[in-house]
Amino acid sequence: MYICLCNAINDKTIRNVVRQQHVRSIRELKSFVPVGSDCGKCVRQAREIINEEISLLPPMINVA
Length: 64
Ligand code: FES
Known about the structure:
Layout: E1 2-4, E2 9-10, H1 11-21, H2 26-30, H3 43-56
Antiparallel strand pairs: 1-2
Helix pairs in contact: 1-3
Bound molecules: FE2/S2 (inorganic) cluster.
Domain BFD-like [2Fe-2S]-binding: 2-52
Cofactor: [2Fe-2S] cluster
Family: Belongs to the Bfd family.
């Protein structure tokens, strides 16, 4: 499903960037894909996908 119509970015692309590049915010996501760079209508939904994907990641284990 397309999230950013202006730049043809779909949810799968955003999920892959979150997992592979350890993206945790819209600002970080924008350094990999041009989401929200035109009309900006996609930012809210892109943020929801980032948060959803983060919640699916395994918890970080603190290593001293
Ligand atoms: S839909 Fe993403 S910038 Fe317009």
